[in-house]
Please model this.
Amino acid sequence: MPGPLQLRPHHFLCALGYRGVGYSDGFTANMTAIVTDGLKSRDGDATEIEVIGATDDICAPCPKRRGDLCTDQAKISALDLAHSKALGVRPGDRLTWGQAKARIRSLVQPGDLSGICTGCQWLELGYCEASLKNLHDS
Model:
């Protein structure tokens, strides 16, 4: 049996807002398999997640990955720190995707992403904000 899905802190909100675009075809295919076909599937809420402090399962095929780091490591570290504080998670924590969504709903309000996700190139597309609003409305 495979182990838990490994996610760095900022990828919780990335997964929530994912809409099928990414850094490369390989990255997009991998993220689609993890998020669309996994976390957002009928049984996705039961998916066990382990929080890690380095490159994770989403990062695996990213063209910006350099071992356990990223070519934009300073920006990624800042995003992970902000998300870790906002969600109350740290490396080593384990929770299900359903628990993660409940945590996001209780701790992150629509409009908060402009502060939490400062520097993220995907923020301006509005996908994450729309998904956060949908989570609150559900």
